[in-house]
Amino acid sequence: MPETARHRGAALAVLSAASLMVVLDSSIVAVALPVIQTDLAFSAPGLAWVVNAYLVAFGGLLLLSGRLGDLVGRRRVFLVGLVVFTAASLAAGLSPNATTLVIARFVQGVGGALTSAVVLGMIVTLYPEPRARVRAIGVYSFTQAAGASIGMVAGGALTQGLDWHWTFYINLPIGVAALVLTPLVVASDRGLGLRTGVDVLGALLVTAGVMLLVLGIVQAGEAGWTFLTIGTLVLAVVLLLLFLLRQARTRTPLLPLRLLRVRAISGANLTMVVMVAGFLGFQFVTALYLQQVLGFDALATGFAFVPTPVMIAAFSLGLADWLNTRFSPRSVLVAGLLTTSVAFLYLTQVQTSGGYALHVLPSLILMGAGAGMAIPALMGLAMSAATPEDSGVTSGLITTTQQVGGALGTAVLATAAATRTAGLLGGGVPEKEALASGFRVAYSFSAGLTALAAILAAVILGRRAAAPAAAPEPVAR
């Protein structure tokens, strides 16, 4: 194997491992929440902030982090993110009380955003050849698609085998190894330079807007559509509209609006929001069904999801290159989304007396196959029209839409399931039957969301998008 291929393979391995570490963190901690609540005396509302503090910081800073990578160098931003994330993981594991843990989780989210926002842009730069890029994006997509399922297995094993502190300590060896290896295998990049101008006001508007958007969606799923929830979402929309207005007028935009006029970028991001809303909501609902209806414990629930990442690996790592070469990425994307929609429709038949092998396993296999086809194809389409100067912000944008879609899907599906269950319980229906009925409603939503994503992909990405207009020359302030 040529030296250049070995070098690029090592760089891809380091970038993917760091990305997987960040993805794992959201699900690996979720399994340990009941034990954390007991040990640190969390209140029920306060416990949610172990997850929410991370999500708000992570989602809110992705776009800014991606643009910073374009300006000061993606490798530099990646390394800073690794330092922050690893140090915050240590602080979280050592937390003596609830307040310290929530603060550490927020800082983890900051580090996770800095690390994750630039990875896809670095991979695209590392692999300019189309076929090699497809394979590399397949590896990256596997970390994104399978990370949550792997995290549930790891979280259950660490929590039951050791204790909850290790759900954070597990990040330390990965983070330190990535910090040591990155300067050795990932080439440095200069970036455009801060002298080209930084849109500070735009950065403040989009960061606050996305943070409030994620917070409002999370609140809707947990507390319902209260005045506070609606007010938070309205303020988020206002800030994001002001951000877009600012981007249209400033000479140094954080998000050049010309990118949104490119069908491959705007269409892929819209499809991503809807697709991930169906995908991540499914994981949340299925974990509840396995535990509350079928009686699985945390470790068994984690292992129950193993078929999904195995199938994702088979398609995204083994078949993505062939599929996207033999067929168009759009065709592979639509086929993958329709496959996942069938998986969700099958899950609408779950019963209180059902078994894992009959009612759940076939859908997990289909889900893995569909996600393994759809996610690499969509990632590739999202980055296909990005120029080298904009690959960081384009990477940050697609990662932001992933997070918003995940938060939205979890909130919508949880609300739909809870509403149906509460109505049946009020009518005297037995608890398990009421729960199962609520989950069936949630699966119907997931099936609809992924079918809608397939329609959006077929229509919006139906014609070959033109490349984005060249970036304008920097204007001195």
Automatic annotation (TrEMBL):
Pfam families referenced in this protein's UniProt entry, alphabetically: MFS_1 (PF07690)
Major facilitator superfamily (MFS) profile domain sequence ranges: 11-465
GO molecular function: transmembrane transporter activity
Location of the protein in the cell: Cell membrane
Record's bilayer topology term: Multi-pass membrane protein
NCBIfam families: efflux_EmrB (TIGR00711)
Name used for this protein in its record: EmrB/QacA subfamily drug resistance transporter
